[in-house]
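Quick check before the chapter quiz. The format below is the same one you will see on the exam, so make sure you can read both the input and the output lines.
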Amino acid sequence: MNEVDNAEKEMNRGFLQLVVLLLLEKAMYGYMIVRVLEEQGLTVDENTLYPLLRRLEEKGALSSRWDATEAKARKYYEVTDQGRVLRGSLLEIWVKQGKTIQTLRQEVRS
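Here is the expected output.
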């Protein structure tokens, strides 16, 4: 794995947490999340997603419920009020970081 791949992996950790908290305003199961993210051009391995979902649930940022009405039981996740607070904080960080990058890029061009 090269340096860019390593950097991308590190950057995606926090980004994925934010994306999941944004996406789960509507209840979804894991594979559905993977598919929606792929449609947006973000490839997420299930071995990365499911541990993240469990961690967010343990922290109270997500709630889950099992639905066994179809042939295959599915665990649906949804953001909680606590998750919305976390999401807001992460969005603030992301916006601040984006502004910093834009400012630095403009200074370099000058």
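If your answer matched, good. The first strand starts at residue 28 and ends at 29.
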